[in-house]
Design brief:
The complex is a heterodimer.
Chain A: E1 2-5, E2 8-11, H1 19-26, E3 34-37, E4 40-42, E5 57-65
Parallel strand pairs in A: 1-5
Antiparallel strand pairs in A: 1-2, 3-4, 3-5
Chain B: E1 5-7, E2 10-12, E3 16-19, H1 26-36, E4 40-47, H2 54-65, E5 68-71, H3 79-93, E6 97-100, E7 103-105, E8 110-111, H4 113-125, E9 129-134, H5 138-146, E10 153-154, H6 168-177, E11 184-186, H7 192-200, E12 205-208, H8 210-213, H9 218-238, H10 259-268
Helix pairs in contact in B: 1-9, 3-4, 7-9
Classes of the chains: A mainly beta, B alpha/beta.
Function (chain B): Catalyzes the rearrangement of 1-deoxy-D-xylulose 5-phosphate (DXP) to produce the thiazole phosphate moiety of thiamine. Sulfur is provided by the thiocarboxylate moiety of the carrier protein ThiS. In vitro, sulfur can be provided by H(2)S.
Subcellular location (chain B): Cytoplasm
Subunit structure (chain B): Homotetramer. Forms heterodimers with either ThiH or ThiS.
Chain lengths: ~70, ~270
Amino acid sequence: MQLMVNGEAITIQPGGKTVECLLQQLGYQGETFAVALNGDFVARDTYGEVALNEGDSVDIVAPVVGG
Amino acid sequence: MADKLNLYGKAFDSRLLVGTALYPSPAIMRESVAASGAEIITLSLRRQSPAQQQGKMLWDYIQESGCQLLPNTAGCKTPKEVVALAEMSREIFGTDWLKLEVIGDDYNLQPDPFGLIEAARELVQRGFKVLPYCTDDLVVCRRLLDVGCEVLMPWGSPIGTGRGLMNKYNLQTLRERLPDVPLIIDAGIGAPSQACEAMELGFDAVLLNTAIARAQNPVLMAGAFRLAVESGRAARNAGLMLKRQTASPSTPTLDMPFWQQAVSEGEKA
């Protein structure tokens, strides 16, 4: 399945049907990141339920310095 | 009575809020924040791959700092983007405080007043404590209060310009017409004297980043801003004298020696 993750096209392995699967495949661990799917916030406790579809755009963000 | 800064039910001793960006190194950032005495710091969120560890390093500092975190929505141009970023910030940082930015112009980073009000309304309904970075327009500020903002952060001048208080008439109008609303000058402050001036005008606090981070010695400059803000606040509380058009001697004129003599000589002439 083709997805856009942080603006880059990637192909994920079969079985990567949910946000949780995607994060595991990409190696995200801990709690210092947050996720949006097609521009909408995805709460951490729903990662296992939110399904991914062909062409979806996923943003994964972490804390940075800011003014 | 202690002169506290009260924002959304929390009391702070410091009236200087600082950003965490643009410092020469993370160590200098930490030292500068400490020297500033700030109890509220701004942060943001950006895309990050698992290989990058900056997020983790910053997270460790955040945990140690003890500061109230004020995540921003810098770079957002629409209420939809703002809401998504705000929700992500709340989840990561564990706070519903938000420095709301909706940028309306890329050149001067001017807030979009229409997007700002729409976004603020939605965020307040979602339970956020919104501190909007706004222009100094009285009517826009009133609309932001109408939708539930309890604190306003009008700009002094565009972000990163260091031009100080660009439109003092508008800022004084805000202070006079909104006497009970916490008003924080956000952006454009370039020198401690400008921060002091904002406080003398009666603003409740000052938020800045570049002026400290881009100083040749950020830690020293952070301390200078701390003193300036404290000085300006004390001056405001003390009550400034009124400006006069003509000179008025400060030394007593009564019993001035030679006075009679000068008059006598004048009479002779």
